[in-house]
Design brief:
It is a single chain. With 243 residues, the chain is an alpha+beta fold. It is 33% helix and 27% strand. The protein contains seven helices and eleven strands. It has helices at 12-17, 35-49, 55-59, 69-88, 131-141, 160-168, 230-242, and strands at 21-22, 28-29, 90-94, 105-111, 114-123, 148-154, 173-178, 185-190, 201-209, 217-225, 228-229. A six-stranded mixed sheet has the order 3-4-5-6-7-8, with helices on both faces. Strands 9-10-11 form a three-stranded antiparallel sheet. A hairpin with a 7-residue loop joins strand 9 (201-209) and strand 10 (217-225). Helix 5 (131-141) runs parallel beside helix 6 (160-168). The longest helix has 20 residues, at 69-88.
């Protein structure tokens, strides 16, 4: 049985990366390059992903499109992680994977002999998050251990319907909204299902001047434990652990 000659055309760039192997003088079959080359490309992608693991290292990256949704979304994830670490002492890490079931970060919150597992989702949307986003986190949390609390962080905050869904949820949840830069947050609250994790804790509101508009006053949530600022107690605990 005879086969007709087959002419296969490839762009020059493709030929440079994936050379064509000649089978015979009359027929040629194109096949893509050695697997080692594909593995090499894959490793380069992995290296690019590993170039940043914190807000500081991410901001230090050069030649990135700072208006792209991927950049702004990643930035808000790191701002949330940074806020949780500095204000509440939460040790968390960004997942940064495509198969993470919608989880943007995982972590632990250790306080006064307790260790609380956390998973988090971050929403860098231009509008407030609705009840659908709360339900999505509930679905994700259903696959975790019972001693896990879910955090939903939204840059623009939440609608009233979302807050109602949050309060009525049987799953332990925290809502928060982080300010640009990650140094503080505008909202931090947990629902009744998470109350047993935070026995003795409460959130109060502190008023302060706007950093850019002195005449404007803004609210800042402050976490308290038995009537004392939790951040102060956390610093004292760290000093005791270092001694």
């Amino acid at each position: 049985m005879k086969f007709p000659n087959v002419n296969v055309f490839f762009p020059r760039k493709a030929l440079e990366l994936f050379p064509i192997k000649q089978i015979s003088s009359r027929k040629s079959v194109a096949f893509f390059a050695p697997r080692t080359r594909l593995f090499s490309l894959s490793s380069q992608v992995q290296q690019q992903k590993q170039e940043h693991d914190s807000l500081e290292t991410f901001l230090a990256l050069k030649n990135l499109n700072t208006t792209a949704s991927v950049y702004t979304g990643t930035l808000y994830e790191y701002e949330t992680i940074h806020c949780l670490q500095n204000i509440f002492g939460v040790d968390s890490r960004r997942t940064g994977q495509s198969y993470d079931c919608g989880i943007d970060f995982r972590g632990y919150w250790t306080f006064f002999g307790k260790r609380l597992c956390l998973i988090g989702q971050c929403k860098n949307h231009y509008t407030r998050c609705g009840p659908r986003h709360v339900r999505e986190l509930e679905g994700t949390l259903s696959h975790e251990s019972p001693a896990t609390c879910g955090i939903l962080s939204a840059k623009k905050g939440f609608t009233e319907a979302a807050k109602l869904q949050f309060k009525a949820s049987p799953w332990p949840l925290i809502l928060m909204a982080v300010r640009p830069g990650g140094d503080n947050c505008e909202l931090f609250m947990w629902n009744n299902a998470a109350e047993h994790f935070f026995d003795g804790f409460q959130v109060t509101v502190q008023f302060e001047n706007h950093p850019e508009i002195p005449a404007l006053t803004i609210e800042r949530p402050v976490l308290m434990y038995q009537g004392k600022p939790f951040k102060t107690l956390l610093k004292k605990q760290k000093l005791l652990n270092q001694q």
